[in-house]
Amino acid sequence: MTEHLTHVTHPLVQHKLTLMRKTDTSTAVFRQLLREISQLLAYEVTRNLPMTTRTIDTPLEPMDAPVLDGKKLALVSILRAGNGLLDGILELIPSARVGFVGLYRDEETLKPVQYYFKVPTELEDRLVIAVDPMLATGNSSVAAIDLLKKAGAKNIRFLCLLAAPEGIARMKEAHSDVPIVTAAVDSHLNDNGYIVPGLGDAGDRMFGTK
Ligand code: URA
User: Fold this and answer.
1) Which residue CA neighbors atom 5 of ligand 1 most closely?
2) What is the DSSP string of 49-103?
3) Each residue of 149-208: pLDDT tens digit?
4) Position 3 confidence tier, pLDDT thresholds 50, 70, 90
5) Is 121 assigned a catalytic role?
6) Does residue 201 line the site of ligand 1, with CB under 6 A?
7) Is the beta carbon of 20 within 6 A of some atom in ligand 1?
8) pTM listed for this prediction
9) Is 106 annotated in the active site?
């Protein structure tokens, strides 16, 4: 990908996102919509994956047919909200390897604190797609990508549902080599680090916690 930011404006994505933003959307519907959008965003984030050909036999004749090239890609969920994006993407890319980065946001400093890190081997040879629905301050995304790079990842993309301009700028400054794919760029962050207008706390909304 050459663009630092890809804003997916597809009507289905935008319609589903509007439903997700609404306060009265239930946990079950929110989760289902997130799963559906994750697949549409995955379509964009994998648009230019490297391809090769393999000779196959069709019922009529052999052909050199296109297949994905390279090692199986790695999906990395930034816990816990990233998990809401995982299942849908894994349905599209079932052979992907999966990693987890556990970071929580200190509600006072808004800084990320690491509590878990487990990623696939040979990260340096894989495309790594880090997923987190909300790119807010960018602090946890930048920290997660720092960790992935430290673990060897060289080719990373970041997939989110909503992004704040502050988070996009922070990511660009820290990791200009990591393209971002998002369904929306909202207005700003409030004093608590929430995206406005946003959709509230993505983890709470998908898991029904408060
Ligand atoms: N995380 C969320 O879940 N929502 C926001 O608005 C910001 C960070």
Assistant:
1) 194
2) --EEEEEEE-SS-EEEEEEE-SSPPEEEEEETTTHHHHHHHHHHSTT-EEEEEEE
3) 999 999 999 999 999 999 999 999 999 999 999 999 999 999 999 999 999 999 999 999
4) confident
5) no
6) yes
7) no
8) 0.94
9) no
